[in-house]
Automatic annotation (TrEMBL):
The keyword Transferase does not apply. Keywords: Membrane, Transmembrane, Transmembrane helix. Residues 329-389 form the DUF7343 domain. Coiled coil: none annotated. InterPro entries: DUF7343, DUF7345, WH_DNA-bd_sf. The chain crosses the membrane at residues 266-284. This is Helix-turn-helix transcriptional regulator. The keyword Transmembrane applies. Residues 68-200 form the DUF7345 domain. Residues 291-329 are annotated as: Disordered.
Length: 403
């Protein structure tokens, strides 16, 4: 099953970096442990089996572990596994010298630890390729080990490889990470999972919400999730877009700067949505679509009786769908459907951003979910996404089998 196998292999490759084979770290003790104590998810038990047990380095061998994924515009990614350990500098310890010897051997020789890492990376990409129908390979393997002083000596081991075809790439240039995590991902205590945008990319969205530096997700250089943590199905899910894309250069009359200002935090964005939603509802109730009987009081209007229409009668100004509930009570999906319907059944995505006042990332995520549910359809025209309700799609999006 794709979910258990791929999630298990992901767990295995994350765990293999702490499996001791042919070259232990100085000062580290070893034990024979159940498979579950050496892997990152229970699912990996189906993918790693050595008579039900493996020889594992105890968790205290490393103080911290970071799994870093840098995603490129073409969907490839560089996976880097970095493990760090504070070295003992007491006068009666020679751990620093021993670690230096270990690091030299690790870099000069292809130890079993490194060989196993490359084998599992290749198995991981092969499985991912079979299940996603995307061409995937594990290439450009690198390794290093040494000591950093900051100021105390910190021993590190680092291994990396390039995973080609890791993420999906859409016609608009957006890159999405997440489908390989079908079944979810687990990171243990003292472990971190980091995603970085490659050259020319910026964050559009990240689920679940992670930690980042900067005033907004779009300007962040990385997003980090710290363990212990178990991600739900298909997560972490990250969407990256080309710098300056997704309609960011199509805003007019200062709306771009306003949107950027209010998209810095979800809290502020939520307040803006509420304010604009109430304002939009007031316009809908009392604006162009409402009655404007402000004529001088010089007698009843000729058709004043039409103010009270009998059952079944049709108001000439009411050629609109039935009155919808108060917008403050509507779901985001309902608001988008109403907005598109009010605009003839079809809208540009950038116009939805402008009219709702929501951030580009929120609108993009919401529309993706609605497209999966079949509520709307998308068509890329140039640099614009055209969003349509059922029955209002441009001809290019309709099936050739439709009459």
């Amino acid at each position: 099953m794709y979910r258990s196998v791929l999630a298990g292999i992901v767990a295995l490759i994350l765990a293999v970096s702490v499996v001791s084979a042919g070259g232990s770290l100085p000062g580290a003790s070893h034990t024979t442990a159940d498979i579950s104590s050496a892997t990152l998810t229970p699912d990996s038990a189906s993918s790693l089996e050595t008579n039900g047990r493996v020889t594992a380095v105890q968790s205290q061998q490393f103080d911290s572990t970071t799994f870093e994924v840098t995603v490129s515009e073409n969907g490839d990614s560089t996976w880097t596994f970095r493990h760090e350990r504070q070295l003992n500098t007491s006068s009666d310890s020679n751990e620093t010298d021993e670690y230096r010897e270990f690091a030299e051997q690790f870099e000069e020789e292809e130890t079993e630890l490194y060989v196993r890492f490359t084998e599992q990376a290749q198995a991981l990409t092969a499985t991912g390729s079979n299940q996603t129908d995307r061409q995937m390979e594990a290439t450009n393997f690198n390794r290093s080990a040494g000591i950093n002083y900051r100021p105390n000596p910190m021993g590190y081991v680092e291994m990396s490889f390039t995973w080609t075809g890791f993420a999906t790439v859409d016609d608009d240039g957006s890159v999405t990470v997440g489908d390989v995590f079908d079944g979810g991902l687990y990171i243990g205590p003292d472990q971190s999972f980091v995603v970085r945008p490659g050259d020319g990319l910026v964050f559009e969205s990240a689920q679940p919400e992670g930690q980042y530096l900067g005033t907004s997700l779009e300007s962040a250089s990385s997003v980090t999730w710290n363990g212990e943590r178990e991600f739900p199905d298909g997560q972490p899910r990250v969407v990256l877009v080309p710098e300056g894309s997704d309609g960011s250069d199509s805003q007019v009359d200062g709306n771009s700067s306003l949107t950027d200002l209010f998209s810095s935090t979800w809290l502020v964005a939520g307040l803006v949505v509420v304010a604009l939603g109430l304002g939009g509802f007031a316009w809908y109730r009392f604006g162009s679509g409402a009655s404007t009987d402000d004529s001088p009081d010089d007698g009843p209007a000729p058709d004043a009786a039409s103010q009270r229409l009998p059952d079944g009668a049709v108001d000439s100004e009411a050629d609109q769908p039935p009155t919808l509930p108060d917008e403050s009570l509507m779901t985001d999906e309902d608001r988008v459907v109403k907005l598109i319907r009010d605009n003839g059944g079809r809208m540009k995505q950038v116009n939805i951003v402008e009219e709702t006042g929501w951030s580009k990332s929120k609108v993009s995520m919401l529309l993706s979910d609605m497209e999966e549910e079949g509520t709307i359809s998308k068509l890329r025209v140039g640099r614009e996404n055209i969003i349509s309700l059922d029955g209002f799609e441009p001809e290019a999006t309709k099936s050739p089998f439709e009459e």
